[in-house]
Write a structure and sequence with these properties.
By secondary structure, the protein is mostly helical. 63% of the residues lie in helices and 11% in strands.
Length: 225
């Protein structure tokens, strides 16, 4: 398991505890420590590391936007996905009841164990750098994916907010091409500001094409910065 995590524990018992679900502990009449306390600590450390990372990496996002982005990254589904990547489910200690009802692949159990491992690394190493390495090496793809998804939710609004920082001129979206039959058209749209092309997008509807054009414009603005 340590090879999957990429960290060698000084105190091997910490890893064992991180992989022990409450159902296993209850079956052992409380004689075996479960991962709830480590999960509590890991949750706080994870939030700190992700908050610091996106604060430094995405300096164009407001406090509210950073909060929304962090929530989309540090969510049960994302953590469970990363837990599966490092095969936590194969190594977690479960009670018989949880085992029989599919607990080994349950998102909530996997996500909690992932956070417990973060807590265990923090305690064992007494060094935030090791924790950062574990979190960011595992979650960089999630961060990138969520950032792009976050932007695509309403790129037109986000682009307008960026432009309004230095201009009162509105952004125009011009259809420059329509292809295909009436029931299956593909639109190509250009986002324009002050007569300058900002981005081009394609989509099955004008709205989708405009959003894609805005997304391409946002990427262009960032590259200039």
């Amino acid at each position: 398991m340590e090879n999957n995590i990429g960290y060698k524990f000084i105190d091997k018992n910490l890893l064992k505890v991180a992989l022990t679900h409450t159902s296993y502990s209850h079956e052992k009449k409380g004689t075996v420590e479960n991962n709830e306390r480590l999960e509590f600590l890991g949750d706080a450390v994870l939030e700190l590391v992700i908050s610091s990372h996106i604060f430094k990496k995405f300096n164009d996002l407001s406090e509210g936007e950073l909060t929304k982005l962090r929530a989309s990254i540090v969510c049960e589904a994302s953590l469970a996905r990363k837990a599966r990547d490092i095969k936590i489910g194969e190594n977690i200690r479960l009670g018989k009841g949880e085992e029989l009802t599919g607990g080994r692949d349950r998102d909530s159990i996997l996500a909690d164990a992932f956070e417990a491992i973060i807590g265990a690394i923090y305690i064992d190493s007494n060094n935030i750098k090791y924790v950062e390495d574990f979190i960011l090496s595992n979650m960089e793809d999630i961060i990138k994916e969520k950032r792009e998804t976050f932007e695509m939710n309403d790129c037109k609004t986000y682009l307008q907010e960026l432009i309004q920082k230095y201009s009162t001129e509105p952004i125009k979206y011009n259809i420059i091409q329509e292809e295909g039959p009436a029931h299956n058209k593909v639109f190509t749209v250009m986002a324009i500001h002050n007569g300058k092309e900002l981005g081009i997008g394609r989509g099955k509807s004008k709205k989708d094409a405009e959003q894609q054009a805005a997304f391409e414009a946002i990427k262009g603005i960032r590259e200039v910065k």
